């Protein structure tokens, strides 16, 4: 049975268990689900040249694959043949760039997904429609939240799929933030962990908005956040560190 602390601060595996496997790969997602306390996985989605949602953080291939150039200039089949694992460790050589559909099939009924929409305004509407269509096909509306830094994408998501939960990502805490979320019909806030405070959590809770703090990797930051009584999600590259912080909080 999970502790009250764990339940009030659900663990979100950032790009999968990206501290132990190459980010945004099936290897990282499989590793994340070896920890029973992981309740959510966060991942990033772009469109391929042939309009297939693919799971990768950057708009370019250079950092996390053996390819070069822009994601949108390659087809899904071409992307699937790239090596997205060797950069992390030779053990993961040949790990491919996954399609979003693969991740949905893997996670359905096992773990909830926070899908960050990464496209810019030019292709954003198409990305939203393709992602929403897959979610509908897998009947996962209740298992997913769509998030983005781009307010326009969130508004388009709400137009395309009114039943889907949506959220804004921000690294700041501007005045009127909750009102901005309400005007977008967003019920989720993904915010830099440095901006988390008791007053913000009280305000969001009163407005029915769930909060996720990102990306919390240092043990001291994890311990501080895990000790807060207010409920919110903690997003980390290291679910094992999250678990240690929660256990430490229980023993105090």
Primary descriptors:
about 250 residues; 9 strands; alpha/beta; eight-stranded parallel beta barrel; TIM Barrel; about 35% helix; about 20% strand
Structure description:
- With 252 residues, this protein is α/β, with parallel strands linked by helices.
- It has a single domain, classed as Phosphatidylinositol (PI) phosphodiesterase (TIM Barrel, Alpha-Beta Barrel).
- The chain has ten helices and nine strands.
- The longest helix has 17 residues.
- This is Glycerophosphodiester phosphodiesterase.
- It comes from Cohnella xylanilytica.
The helix content is: 25-40%
Strand order of the largest sheet: 1-2-4-5-6-7-8-9
Global outline: globular
CATH topology: TIM Barrel
What is the straight-line distance between the termini?
19 Å
Please count the helical segments: 10
CATH architecture: Alpha-Beta Barrel
Unreliable spans are none
Helices, strands, pairings?
Blueprint: H1 4-8, E1 11-14, H2 26-32, E2 38-47, E3 53-55, H3 76-80, H4 100-107, E4 112-117, H5 121-137, E5 144-148, H6 151-160, E6 165-170, H7 177-183, E7 188-192, H8 198-206, E8 210-214, H9 219-226, E9 233-236, H10 239-251
Parallel strand pairs: 1-2, 1-9, 2-4, 4-5, 5-6, 6-7, 7-8, 8-9
Antiparallel strand pairs: 2-3
């Amino acid at each position: 049975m999970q502790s009250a602390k764990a339940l009030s601060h659900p663990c979100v595996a950032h790009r999968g268990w990206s501290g132990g496997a190459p980010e945004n790969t099936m290897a990282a997602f499989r590793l994340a689900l070896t920890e029973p306390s992981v309740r959510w996985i966060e991942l990033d989605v772009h469109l391929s040249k042939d309009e297939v949602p693919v799971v990768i953080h950057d708009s370019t291939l250079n950092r996390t694959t053996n390819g070069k150039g822009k994601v949108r200039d390659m087809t899904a089949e071409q992307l699937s043949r790239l090596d997205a694992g060797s950069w992390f460790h030779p053990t993961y050589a040949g790990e491919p760039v996954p399609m979003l559909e693969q991740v949905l099939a893997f996670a359905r009924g096992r773990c909830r997904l926070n899908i960050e929409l990464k496209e810019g305004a030019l292709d954003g509407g198409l990305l939203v429609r393709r992602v929403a269509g897959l979610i509908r096909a897998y009947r996962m509306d209740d298992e997913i939240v769509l998030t983005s830094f781009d307010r326009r994408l969130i508004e388009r998501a709400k137009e395309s799929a009114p039943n889907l939960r949506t959220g804004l990502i921000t690294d700041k805490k501007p005045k009127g933030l909750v009102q901005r979320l309400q005007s977008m019909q967003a019920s989720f806030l993904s915010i830099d962990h440095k901006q988390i405070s008791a007053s913000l959590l009280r305000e969001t809770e009163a407005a029915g908005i769930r909060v996720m703090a990102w990306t919390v990797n240092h043990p001291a930051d994890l311990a501080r956040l895990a000790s807060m009584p207010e409920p919110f999600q903690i997003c980390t590259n290291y679910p094992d560190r999250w678990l240690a912080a929660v256990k430490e909080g229980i023993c105090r």
